[in-house]
Design goal:
The complex is a heterodimer. By secondary structure, chain A is of the alpha/beta class. Chain A is 34% helix and 28% strand. Classes of the chains: A alpha/beta, B mainly alpha.
């Protein structure tokens, strides 16, 4: 499933035929079914799915906090299944992890939290302290070293958690819904920090999320997980522009707000436009309406300006007049937009 | 009101009560704390599930806790004699007090350690911590406030038991209350011991709560 262009770089994590079944008193729940995925060094890999899709279980299989029922996980070429507890613990030190609820030690200071993995790794006191202060500098919290987590905001707590996860010099950072408890502005700053860590420290990052905007914002690659199965994988811009599966389409167009309106409209011809390279300053839709001379209905719009380029998507309901509709599609294509016909968007 | 002799006797027996209480609490912790930790570790959702060990500890704790203290006091006399050499007096009382307190403490420790956020334990595991690290660096420090509160509850409960032990010659304030108040109808001395006991409880409770709060870092200062 992986494209050839990154076959050159080293595979950091290989997931092979992974299944996980949970046994409850009277039933078996298959949380993950035959997952196969390669994550290469330097990637920021987003694993996205609706809640209950099995993504949190999957990320816990990557450091064996959960043991897979079937299949293997290789980290830097080594099979976790072959390791005893001691080897597993030393491998975990090379895999940092951050969580939705930060999971800081509340009775330890900020510095104490960052020191924790260094104490476990038996790094001598002075050296550990120096390292911890460096990391607090990296996440922008040098002045909070002596403060206790209860006195910090959510964003600051997640920064401490990131510093702590980096203390043992991991090669991989797993993020389990790391921004789900944060407001949009804080989410953005945490994602920027993760992106910086990826670039500056060369750490491979796996991001588990239910939010498409998180994937768009930082991820290079994405895997869509739906009902315990990997529905689609690939580069973010590729999957976003040409989603092949229903699961992907559902995720990209997740928005409950428009549903009530849809039934009132007559035309059934809808299209989805993906913005990836157009200037934010070009009023594409307005120009299209002016050039064809008929209004359209915007059913969904989720675009933002990233560095002067429009990113995101829109769903348009085209006029009933097929000729005019076709003219609009043509116009959009001349503007180099990805246009996708939607057959069942309006019922 | 009281003669100097009686006052010094009350004072002396206050110290004896404190001696019995503190000594048996300490010894009971030496037994109860590891028991509580083992209960948490061996539980089904624990770090090292072990159904046999858990069940065994669970039964022992329940069994000892269901015996009324006065009966336990008499029941363990042979053991007390074997350890201390006699079955009466403050030092001898420490034996039944410890046996009664240890399972009680084990339960208190167990429930306090269970209160620690499982997410924090998971985070520690993800950093490669072993179970020893998790117990010493996560569970106990994170449960510190609850554990200190537990110790206060344990001290106060054992103080009460020690007074009970006084009725069968255990020494301390309970002994005085029985001897003077009950057998000799010197109600004023009995009241004095009661007041002293109430004061001791108040002081222990106050000090324990203060310490717990002072050491709790979750409170915004």
């Amino acid at each position: 499933m992986e494209t050839d262009n990154n076959a050159m770089s080293e595979v950091m994590i290989r997931i092979e035929g992974l299944s996980k079944t949970f046994r409850t008193k009277d039933a078996e729940v298959e949380a993950l079914k035959d997952i196969n995925l390669d994550i290469h060094a330097g990637e920021i890999y987003g694993i996205i799915g609706m809640s209950g899709a099995g993504k949190s279980t999957l990320v816990r299989c990557l450091n064996y906090l959960e043991r897979p029922t079937k299949g293997n996980v290789y980290v830097e070429g080594k099979n976790l299944a072959d390791m005893d507890e001691r080897e597993l613990r030393s491998t975990r030190k090379r895999i940092g992890m951050i969580f939705q609820h930060f999971n800081l030690l509340m009775q330890r200071s900020v510095l104490g939290n960052v020191l924790f993995p260094l104490e476990i790794g038996k790094v001598p006191g002075e050296q550990a302290k120096k390292k911890a202060m460096e990391l607090l500098g990296l996440v922008g919290l040098s002045d909070k070293a002596g403060v206790y987590p209860a006195q910090l905001s959510g964003g600051q707590m997640q920064r401490v958690a990131i510093a702590r996860a980096l203390a043992a010099d991991p090669k991989i950072l797993l993020c389990d819904e790391a921004t789900s408890a944060l407001d949009p502005a804080t989410t953005k700053s945490i994602l920027e920090l993760l992106s910086r860590i990826n670039k500056e420290l060369g750490i491979t990052i796996v991001i588990i999320t239910h939010s498409m905007s998180v994937v768009e914002e930082v991820c290079t690659h994405v895997a869509i997980i739906d009902g315990g199965v990997l529905a689609e994988t690939g580069e973010v811009k590729e999957v976003f522009a040409h989603p092949r599966t229903d699961a992907a389409k559902r995720l990209f167009m997740e928005s409950g707000a428009h549903e009530g309106l849809v039934t009132e409209l007559k035309g059934k011809h809808c299209i989805r436009i993906v913005f990836t390279k157009n200037s934010s300053f070009e009023p594409v839709i307005a120009n299209m309406v002016l050039s064809v001379g008929t209004p359209v209905n915007i059913l969904l719009a989720d675009t933002k300006d990233i560095g002067g380029i429009a990113h995101g998507q829109m769903v348009l309901q085209l006029p009933e007049d097929e000729e005019k509709a076709q003219a609009m599609v043509e116009y959009l294509k001349t503007r180099k937009l990805d246009v996708e016909e939607l057959t069942d968007y309006v019922q | 009101m009281f003669s100097e002799k009686i006052i010094s006797m009350l004072f002396e027996n206050t110290l004896i009560t404190l001696y019995m209480t503190v000594a048996s609490t300490l010894i009971a912790y030496v037994i109860g704390l590891p028991m509580g930790i083992l209960l948490v570790l061996s539980a089904k959702d624990g770090l090292r599930p072990n159904a046999v060990l858990y069940k065994a500890l669970d039964v022992i704790v329940n069994l000892l806790r269901s015996i009324p203290f006065l009966i336990l006091l008499v029941l363990v006399i042979p053991l007390t004699r074997a350890i201390v050499g006699k079955s009466y007096g403050p030092t001898a009382t420490i034996v039944p007090l410890t046996i009664a307190a240890a399972p009680f403490i084990a339960r208190l420790v167990e429930s306090s350690l269970r209160e620690v956020d499982p997410g924090v334990v998971e985070a520690a595991k993800s950093m490669g911590a072993d179970n020893f690290n998790i117990v010493t660096k996560v569970l106990i420090p994170e449960a510190r406030t609850a554990l200190i509160t537990d110790a206060t509850v344990a001290l106060v409960t054992i103080l009460g038991y020690s007074a009970m032990a006084g009725t069968v010659g255990g020494g301390g304030l309970g002994d005085i209350a029985i001897q003077y108040g009950y057998y000799r109808y010197q109600t004023d001395i009995m009241f004095a011991t009661v007041i002293l006991l109430v004061l001791l409880v108040q002081i222990l409770q106050w000090a324990g709560m203060r310490l717990a709060r002072a050491l709790d870092r979750r409170v915004r200062s």
